[in-house]
Design brief:
Blueprint lengths: L6 H4 L24 H8 L7 E3 L20 E6 L20 E5 L7 E3 L29 H6 L1 E9 H4 L10 E2 L1 H10 L9 E5 L4 H6 L11 E2 L3 H10 L3 E4 L17 H10 L2 E4 L4 H10 L3 E6 L9 E3 L3 E3 L1
Parallel strand pairs: 5-7, 6-8, 7-9, 9-10
Antiparallel strand pairs: 1-13, 2-3, 4-10, 4-12, 5-11, 11-13
The structure holds acetylphosphate.
The site of acetylphosphate has 9 residues, from loops.
InterPro entries: KFase/CYL, KFase_sf
Pfam family, one: Cyclase
GO molecular function: arylformamidase activity
Length: 317
Amino acid sequence: MPNVPDMTDVLADAPTNWGKWGPEDEVGSLNYLTAEEVLRGVQQVRQGRVFTLQRLIGDPKGDPVWPGRSPAERTMILDESSWDSPDAPQFPGGLHYADDKINAFLQGSTQYDALGHVWYGGQIWNGYDARTTVGGLDRASVEPIARRGVVGRGILLDIARHRGKKTLDKGEAFTHEDLMACAEAQGTRIEKHDILIIRTNFLQLFHDQGEKFYEGFNEPGLVYSPELVSWFQDMEIPNLVTDTIANEVTYDPNNGTALPLHCALMRNLGVALTEICDLEALADSCAEDRQYTFLYAAAPLKVHRATGSPVNPLAIK
Ligand code: UVW
């Protein structure tokens, strides 16, 4: 692409955690979430209130997806009308039941990305060859993340409220310094190993604008800088969770590359990415009771060799 530098050059001096957890590692910075971190998360539980952060799959108002992906399709296979036919299956005692199936992009709803989901320069997380993705991820698929689960102290960073906006705008950027300022304004502080949960409410525009939402598609979010990457590295952030489709400004306003933080944070540092969350009820509650930290617990589905999988994360206050 004219005038857009290669990711290999943009991230030539960027830090990596490759090898830090051994040559076979497939969960990266989730290794920071030790038993002590689980207990630090549990200490945030004061009210017994539970928030589920997944967006509805098959929402009658539509499912927002990355351009080129299509929303999940649910098909009814069996229902009461199936027994109108003389060929209907018969079960002793007159049992009837309903069955359905979905045809869905594994990245097409609230989801964990596998660490091998995105790469550049022929290598994925931990230096594995990108050819290990052919036909399914032999390395760094979502399976190891699903097997270990993700539990720790979560902190909501409500950037939209902090900026006094209903939703952030197309391409609106913020930095790690904005995250710290937001935390301070909320009366809290981002601590080492916190799971960052960032609210933009951008996907409200998907419902408000219809097809226009995809015109000049460029989501708001964190913007790449070497300082931001160093901050994630120093803070040993295990997991970045947002309510946008791809967790960062889609096209870097400084160099034009697409999704450089997927590369710098996920591929290089092993930070897990969780996307397309619904943070509205949690954010309203935090604004009301001023408790912005909570126990965060999530486990994506165990799908063999998958690039990601759906999840319904919990925030427990
Ligand atoms: C891409 O990687 C293109 O998108 P996401 O991480 O949102 O699935």
